UniProtKB/TrEMBL annotation:
Residues the record lists as binding L-homoserine: E220
Organism: Oldenlandia corymbosa var. corymbosa
Pfam families, A to Z: Homoserine_dh (PF00742), NAD_binding_3 (PF03447)
Boundaries of every Aspartate/homoserine dehydrogenase NAD-binding domain copy: 10-155
InterPro entries for this protein: Asp/hSer_DH_NAD-bd, Bifunc_Aspkin/hSer_DH, HDH_cat, HDH_CS, HDH_short, NAD(P)-bd_dom_sf
Protein name as it appears in the record: Homoserine dehydrogenase
Annotated positions binding NADP(+): G10, C11, G12, G13, V14, G15
Length: 372
């Protein structure tokens, strides 16, 4: 039986769902001759690690306990009885990485929403480990970090960073490696903003709809990452970099749905959710009504061309492909030499813990040939 040792960073909505998928797929994976051996799981202030990382694992009872504690809002420290500083967590991860990276191999799976993991992941690559990401932040950090992470392309998978479980990165990689030049990508790449925009058409207030999107697991931990366009911008940057564009986040044009007075450094998240959001209801409803009077709808659109990479609201005919989108669905059109008049279109659920974790799991299985 092939064993894939892995360490999971981040045990929130996506990370927990991944652990549940791993446990529930045990017999399927056994039939395929593979076992995912979870050697460690961490959150922001603790790490659970197998007592014998070379041969052992955190067993399924332990993983279930971790999921239960985290879904009750507890820290992993309550399971490990051991709170750690961020630095201690990092050192321990690097210790495991150095033990396993060049022997059994190790997949380091980032399901956190932190920008701090970029530093660990850059080191992990040097130890021969594979990297699997749902977290977009490491791939949208500096070009130096990006280049390091993708320096061994067979060892990195990040399908869930764009379009959740949709096969966007895989499709694009196939087009690129066949030498077919991509000259335009356009689409709706935010499950949250897709859901919000289509729900607003039914007359519901913006503040309520955003709150529901958060409860459905579509939003980032702070929904301002979605509403400010930053989450879509990160996806756009990941795609643009995949196409070879040497861009950084600050070079993108990004439209925000909230004003600077409500940015995270000024307004705490609780204040934004309770008091900030309702102040935005009237304006956005006004924009929806104006668009609707012309037979149009609003969609938050991502556009990547040779010299343009931008994200923002567009008014579109309600019976256009993007205008017809409903709920958290994403839609991406890829134009290239082979897909010229008629683009390659990828559409489906673009957010949610289940589909995102499924994408991460498929990525882990996809690198199995790299393990002995
Ligand atoms: N939900 C979705 O539809 C999709 C999500 N993603 C991405 O998946 C990632 C996870 O999202 P989600 O599960 O909703 O987020 P959550 O906020 O629910 O979970 C984040 C987890 O990361 C942990 N964490 C924070 N900082 C660190 C750190 N430095 N090292 C290790 N762990 C850390 C948190 O710990 P603690 O519990 O202690 O706070 C928490 O367990 C995000 O990057 C998101 O962009 C991608 C595609 C779709
Ligand atoms: N918050 C994101 C989740 C997936 O990346 C979204 O709404 O699309």
């Amino acid at each position: 039986m092939k064993k894939i040792p892995l360490i999971l960073m981040g045990c929130g909505g996506v990370g927990r769902q991944l652990l549940q998928h791993i446990v529930s797929c045990r017999s399927l994976h056994a039939k395929q001759g593979v076992r995912l051996r979870v050697v460690g799981v961490c959150d922001s202030n603790s790490l659970i690690v197998a007592s014998d990382v070379i041969n052992g694992e955190v067993d399924d009872v332990g993983l279930t306990q971790v999921c239960k504690a985290k879904s009750n809002g507890a820290s992993l420290a309550t399971v490990s009885s051991h709170a750690m500083s961020g630095q201690e967590v990092t050192s321990k991860i690097i210790e495991v990485v150095s033990l396993l990276g060049n022997s059994t191999g190790l997949a380091v799976v980032d399901c956190s929403a932190s920008s701090e993991t970029a530093g660990i992941l850059s080191q992990v690559v040097d130890f021969g480990c594979c990297v699997v990401l749902a977290n977009k932040k490491p791939l949208t950090a500096s070009l130096e970090v990006y280049d390091k992470l993708v320096s061994l392309p067979r060892r990195i998978r990040h399908e869930s960073t764009v379009g959740a479980g949709l096969p966007v990165i895989a499709a694009l990689n196939r087009i690129i490696s066949s030498g077919d030049p991509v000259h335009r990508i356009v689409g709706s790449l935010s499950g949250t903003l897709g859901y919000v925009m289509s729900e607003l058409q039914t007359g519901k207030p913006f503040s309520k709809v955003v709150t529901v999107a958060k409860s459905l697991g579509y939003t980032e931990p702070d929904p301002r990452d979605d509403l400010g366009g930053m989450d879509v911008a990160r996806k756009a940057l990941i795609l643009a970099r995949l196409l070879g564009h040497r861009l950084t986040l600050d070079s993108l044009k990004i439209e925000s749905l909230y004003p600077v007075e409500m940015r995270p450094s000024v307004m705490p998240i609780e204040d934004f959710l309770v008091n900030g959001l309702p102040q935005l209801d009237a304006d956005i409803q006004d924009r929806i009504t104006k668009a609707s009077s012309k037979g149009n709808v609003l969609r938050y659109v991502c556009l990547i061309e040779k010299t343009r990479c931008e994200v923002g609201i567009q008014e579109l005919p309600k019976d256009s492909p993007l205008g017809r989108l409903r709920g958290s669905d994403n839609l991406l059109e890829i134009y290239s030499r082979c897909y010229n008049e008629q683009p390659l279109v990828i559409q489906g659920a673009g957010a949610g813990n289940d589909t995102t974790a499924a994408g991460v799991l498929a990525d882990i299985l996809d690198i199995q040939d790299l393990f002995p």
